[in-house]
TrEMBL record:
This is Acetylxylan esterase. Pfam families: AXE1 (PF05448). SUPFAM superfamilies: alpha/beta-Hydrolases. It comes from Antribacter soli. The active site is at S187, D275, H310. Residues 1-326 form the Acetyl xylan esterase domain.
Length: 330
């Protein structure tokens, strides 16, 4: 795809007004209080991977509603002392895969917690193992419109809560430095990392790459790429203005721009200027808003890939992540 969004100079100053509900904070405080009130602790079972320098545990922890959520926890073997942790969230349709697939951060000295995404894990990669036991009303294929008529019912209310509970879980595990937890993810994983950074005030670093789940209304207006097009498809079928109003109200509680405004962690973003899946202006809307309501000025940088689509930086991101973690989370 050729360049289609705002010029880079305009992206760097793009700060749109969004429809943030007055009870946004109350909604999320009540959601997280409810999830934590269920209680529960993570359980770990060591996996025989055949690796000698990295150990991996199969983790189950309580997420939204106390529902069991799976994760891998990879750590350097024979680690001495509490380890800083990095919680990773995954891209749309993927699952946590196999235990030996993500060991780079563990090899670099971090505890790497890879959260499965409920109800996904069959679109790409090596699969997932976490169901979503909550039902949905009529929806278009995919997860964007599951529970779209009420923010309490929406799929991403559950997933974002799982993400926060993943941070809670990793902090409760022996051998983890609970004061040094960071989040990372690309695409959907980037969007989840933005949400979690807005909901957990004491993370060290957040590293969202080409993040999804931000500035929804604008995204639907400028791209016909999926998954944002799931929203368009739903509205094309359910044509009444009343339904549209309900849809946009629900999504206003889930917008990455609102979460970014509340984030305090040091943020390293990436954006691809030819990205038709997560348009650059939606990424910059969140990046430019980072920390805006906190009264602070968290460190933040954004790496720009001028000639790339949604693949963004891919493997080029890893050394950048290590450098960022070394500066803010080690």
């Amino acid at each position: 795809m050729a360049l289609f969004d705002l010029p880079l100079a305009d992206l760097e100053t793009y700060r749109p007004e969004i429809d943030e509900p007055d009870d946004f904070d109350a909604f999320w405080t009540a959601t997280l209080d409810e999830a934590r009130a269920v209680g529960g602790t993570p359980t770990l079972e060591r996996v025989d991977t055949g690796l000698t320098q990295v150990v991996v545990d199969d983790v189950t922890f309580p997420g939204f509603g106390g529902h069991p959520v799976k994760a891998w926890l990879a750590r350097p073997a024979n680690a001495d002392g509490p380890l800083p942790a990095v919680v990773e969230f995954l891209g749309y349709g993927g699952g946590r895969g196999l235990p030996h697939e993500r060991i780079g951060l563990a090899a670099a000295g971090y505890a790497h917690f890879v959260m499965d995404t409920r109800g996904q894990g069959s679109g790409w990669g090596a699969g997932g193992g976490t169901p979503d036991p909550v039902g949905s009303g009529p929806a278009s294929p995919g997860v964007m419109t599951r529970g779209i008529l009420d923010p309490h019912d929406h799929y991403y209310r559950r997933v974002f809560t799982d993400g926060v509970r993943a941070v809670d879980a990793v902090r409760a595990i022996d051998g983890i430095d609970a004061s040094s937890v960071s989040v990372v993810g690309a695409s959907q994983g980037g969007g989840i990392s933005v949400a979690v950074a807005g909901l957990v005030p004491d993370l060290r670093a957040a590293m969202p790459d080409v993040p999804f789940l931000t500035h929804y209304r604008h995204a639907v207006q400028i791209t016909d790429g999926f998954p944002y097009a799931e929203i368009t498809q739903y509205l094309r079928v359910h044509r009444s203005p009343e339904v549209a109003a309900q849809v946009w109200r629900t999504l206003s509680y889930l917008d990455g721009v609102s979460f970014a405004r509340r984030a305090r962690a040091a943020a390293l973003y990436s954006v691809a200027l030819m990205d038709g899946t997560c348009p650059p202006s939606t990424v910059y809307a969140a990046f430019n808003a980072w920390g805006a309501t906190t009264g602070e000025a968290p460190a933040k940088e954004i790496d720009v890939y001028p000639y790339n689509g949604h693949e963004g930086g891919e493997a080029y991101r890893f050394p950048r992540h290590l450098a960022w973690l070394g500066k803010y989370a080690a």
